[in-house]
Write a structure and sequence with these properties.
Structural class: mainly alpha
Shape: elongated
């Protein structure tokens, strides 16, 4: 396995975990009964989505195919 392949595999693992967190924050926002916390959850989901997109771009830069789904 080349260094690029290891890097791609590691980044894809991070992408999967980050997408899972996007889904979790979004679900928490949807399920929140408190108007106080709902915007916080949705904001965190947006931030995590941006992180996942940056990681996906890095995988593309390394010549790999990025994950686009979470583990759930």
């Amino acid at each position: 396995m080349t260094a690029n392949n290891r890097d791609i595999d590691t980044l894809n693992d991070l992408i999967t975990a980050t997408i899972d967190s996007v889904d979790g924050y979004r679900k928490a926002g949807e399920d929140s009964n408190s108007g106080q916390f709902q915007p916080i959850f949705f904001s965190r989901a947006t931030e995590r989505r941006e992180v996942a997109e940056k990681l996906q771009q890095e995988v593309r830069n390394l010549g790999g195919e990025p994950n686009d789904d979470g583990s759930l």
